[in-house]
Amino acid sequence: MASTAADSITLDVFQDILQKYPDLVKSIAKPPKAGHLSLEELDRFRYIDAPSHLSIKTDAKQFALSDIQKLVQWKIHHGKFRPFLPKLVASNTEDKAREVTKAAFSSYATKRDIKATLKIIEKLKGIGPATSSLILAVHDPENVMFFSDEAYHWLCASGSESLPDLKYTSKEYDELDVKVKKLMARLKVSPTDVEKVSYVLKHTNGYSSAKGPPGKLKSGSLPQDNSKDANATIPRPRGLPRSAAKAEVEEATEKTLEDNLVKPRDRPKSVSEEEKKDDVKEPVEESSVSKPRGRANATQKARTSKVEAESAKPSVLNRKSKRKTTNNATDVEEPVRKRGHPKGKTG
């Protein structure tokens, strides 16, 4: 298996990976929104159209603001999405964009100092080391490397599974620049080709494993993009508060969490089958008398006994009716005794 490590990759393997780049872009491109360019159109501008009329070979002296905005659109759709970046860049005026890029390219033409040139370009709002390196890479595609996450991952982190958190500093770009020039000198390739190869390796997981044998790119269908890191830090342009850089991403995340959150007092209580059975009340017999509790027990018993006793006694009306009935029966069955005669005898 051929190694894909930057220190040992061969030119044949490098070229084989490079040929996979166009198909990869097509496979990960999403339909653009109305009025926006597709990733393939932005990719063509980045690698073909922009260098053909904005490079040092065409004696370009400056960039228009629209050129910078297109490159920023390519950057956020080709790599990590930065929703706040286009607005910051758009806040620059046309005169400011032309003035800064003209001063930067003039300095680069005389000194060929990449680091000093990037510092000049970074005077624009929303432009940091990564975007400034992209602008200069378009101006001099044969000597300047774009500071991409994929390139740093491959060349400086050896394609390890855990990519160190990039701060997008000049020191990190200097480290990348040294690695790129070493690879360019060994394979005789351009920075643009190195950029594309690192992009393919990152999005196809084609790195050589640091813990095992070298990896190998499989031919055929390209795997899905798995380069997104949920734990990656969100970089911010110079001068922008960290809270502003994270605002749009955190706002959507917090809203989703808030919508899905069920507060304890609103959460429905789970009722088991046994509890459901307990909730069914058994019918109470009519004759049953609930027993009182506590100190009122004796009093209630006395009242109950009194009520029962009263119920058992016949009423006055009932007693009179009974007496009358008895008397009627006596008048019929026994003759009336005369006064003075003993009982049982008649006169």
Can you put this structure into words, describing what you see?
Residues 338-347 have a biased composition (Basic residues). Residues 245-284 have a biased composition (Basic and acidic residues). Residues 205-347 are annotated as: Disordered. By secondary structure, the chain is mainly α. The chain has two domains: 11-219 and 234-256, no CATH class; 300-330, no CATH class. It is 54% helix and 0% strand. The protein has 15 helices and no strands. The longest helix is centred in the last third of the chain and has 19 residues, at 242-260. It is elongated. It starts with 10 loop residues before the first helix and ends in a 14-residue tail after the last helix. Residues 209-235, 243-292 and 324-334 have low confidence and may be disordered.
List the helices and strands and how they pair.
Blueprint: H1 11-18, H2 21-28, H3 39-54, H4 65-78, H5 85-90, H6 94-111, H7 114-121, H8 129-139, H9 149-155, H10 170-187, H11 191-204, H12 242-260, H13 273-279, H14 297-312, H15 316-333
Helix pairs in contact: 1-11, 3-4, 6-7, 7-8, 9-11
